[in-house]
Specification:
Layout lengths: L2 H15 L12 H14 L7 H18 L10 H4 L11 E5 L9 E6 L14 H9 L1 H14 L9 E4 L7 E6 L9 H20 L4 E4 L11 H16 L6 E6 L2 H12 L7
Parallel strand pairs: 1-6, 2-4, 2-5, 5-6
Antiparallel strand pairs: 3-4
Amino acid sequence: MTREQKVSTLIQYLKQENQGYASIPDPIDEGEQRRLLRSLMNVRYPGHASAEYEKLQDELLQEEAEEKGIVTCNDIPVIEQEYPCSEIKNSDRISLWRGDITRLGVDAIVNAANSQLLGCFVPCHGCIDNAIHSAAGIQLRNECAEIMAEQGHEEPIGKAKITKGYNLPAKHVIHTVGPIVGLAVTEKQKEQLKDCYLNCLKLAEKSSLKSIAFCCISTGEFHFPNKLAAEIAVDTVDRFLTKTSIERVIFNVFKEQDFNIYKKPFLLAVPGFF
């Protein structure tokens, strides 16, 4: 079965599953067909799917992951190599990498989730929550739903939950809900963001994970100032690494603005930069 046939078959399954989508016309363009499939996956509520659907979906998503290219810790230099400095105590275990977090073949990637912990339901939305769930497959939302049903209430800010990675190159996803900032950042929100990083690290350590990649928690949709968020992230991680068995922490950024912001703490001790 060709990729186009796989996409078409998966679309038909999801349209039949929910008759409200039955009237949606099938696009002719291959790119638009793939976008429709992602949209239908994004809006799908948790629930069992047939073994045939999951098999076909998994084949497609794993093919796409291979095509995008899987990036491992060995492909990413540590801060010590890129920006030799003394101010970061654990520069031999911290990396900064700009790219798509769904390409990272690490023990866990961190998802900036919402309080429902079910992923983003907005079709093809640009948030990281949507990207991670779209690349992992519908099984990720199903596992999150099981966790939330057992918990019985919304996920508090600053806590962390772990799931499988499913079709992601990462073995696991650690989900955390960051603070949402209004007009100005409060001291409480600073502590909450710190808790996000700490609890993700503690959960990774408890789960015997050796590598973890953090996205920029609470920036973007949750409006936490990027520079302050980066300072909290780097300081919290560097302090934690002095007393843990975790071997590598990757700060993953997508925008050039965030890459330049994260570079600054690593460059401060490099002669000639500042």
